[in-house]
Amino acid sequence: MLRMQVGAGTAQGAITYANLWHGGRWLHDATVRIDANGHVEGVSTDARPATSVVGGLTVPGLVDAHCHAFQRALGAWTQRAAGSRDDFWSWRETMYALAGRLEPDDLEAITARCYLELLRGGYTSVAEFLYLHRLRGNRELDADVSVAAAARRTGLRLTLLPTLYQHSDFGGAAPKPGQRPFARDTGQFLEDWQELRRRYPAGGDVALGVAYHSLRAVDIGTIEKVQASIGGDARCRCVHIHVAEQPAEVTGCLRQHGLPPVALLASRGLLSSKWALVHATQSSEAEFAQIHAAQATVVLCPTTEADLGDGCPVVAPFLEAGGRIAIGSDSNIGRSSLDELRQLEWSQRLARGRRNVFSTADEPATADRLFRIAHAGGHSAIGATPTAAATADFVTYDAREGDCNLQANSEYLSALVFDAVAPRARQVLVGGRWLIRDGVHAEEAAIEKRYRETIERLRPGILQWKTT
């Protein structure tokens, strides 16, 4: 049951949605019955309208399967070239500068604002890939506390992924100065995992997984050791890793191990349905086949991958074979699930030179297939049940925005995803509790105030760092 600090109300037994995307099609005047635990008991179109009637276009909430919430603050600070060649590696230096300046209150303020925007962007769950752990050199584990507090304040479902980060490159290279706040030895990481298990008990409002930053940052032998220790723990719902995001990572992995990243993980028998591989932008078709064979999930973050110049993987054969894909907001340069889906299709169009890349003969409507894939893949990425009946998580958009109300219902998702500006959610229900009603979240004024104060205080230090 989701515990919240916001003053959201509980849905009263049943809600009638004017237009609900359910089971791959649009239902008109669909009544959703919700039990006391926030689960969907049933959906019908022949019942009398409920007391609570919601207009607009309603879809199930999506999972943001990869998020670094603190990077939400970076957007405008990284859009000026750092030199004659600006790329992922130069962007990373500004990220390090921000991370090294964060206090616990700063992290909570930035994360709460980010999570509120994700709710408005159609996400109802988030996987937080958290390589921060002890902020500003504090002795106690504290970054998770800030993130969990932000999730409770907004109501967004949280899967916390404490992340192991040890090296700056293959071969055990020592962390660079900007990476030292992320680093911890294996013993400390395992102790921290046990502490997180105590802090967030099973059945609570924070689910747990584990993450390895990358094969650059964690040696493959160490990954095997940690997996042997906690991989079989029932509390560890999923395992995430950045993989093959940049060509230099693939080159380094080949030099060190004789195999590219995904193939290396597969060769050690590590991949399984619990694993989510983030980016994979430089992975080969053969590696995608290995991912599929293991029933692992690929998490694509199209707006971040475009912003950082990461690349665009060939995913159509992977999907045609039944592969799983989720979406994530990553650096949070974009916080809308609809924008992420649009960018995913558009990036494939640019790379492949054709349109409607994600459509098939059986599913010609590109937006519908994208949404279905992302919904199922997102739940797989966090080890959750992908069925819409599992929880009452629904997001409603105003049908009057854009051209939605001018379309036949078969084109509603096409209008939502591919219209010029993706709308913000007007109503958001998570676990049977209203988080956003008529576009308003109960905590938004306080969240906005704290965020603005935090950015105004951090900005001078970051700008000074960039000019020195």
Q: What strand line-up does the widest sheet have?
A: 6-7-8-9-10-11-12-13
Q: What share of the residues does DSSP label as strand, in percent? A: 15-25%
CATH architectural group of the domain at 14-60 and 392-444: Roll
Low-confidence stretches: 1-7
Average pLDDT for all residues: 92
Shape label:
globular
Distance between the termini: 49 Å
User: Structural class, from secondary structure content?
Assistant: alpha/beta
Please describe what this structure looks like.
The protein has 14 helices and 17 strands. The chain is globular and about 65 Å long. The longest helix has 23 residues, at about 445-465. The chain has helices spanning about 90-100, 105-120, 145-155, 185-200, 220-230, 245-255, 260-265, 285-295, 300-310, 315-320, 335-350, 365-380, 410-420, 445-465, and strands at about 15-20, 25-35, 40-45, 50-55, 55-60, 60-65, 125-130, 155-165, 205-210, 235-245, 275-280, 295-300, 325, 395, 425-430, 435, 440. It is about 35% helix and about 20% strand. The chain has about 475 residues and is an alpha/beta fold. Mean pLDDT is about 90; it is low at about 1-5. It has a domain at about 15-60 and about 390-445: Urease, subunit C, domain 1.
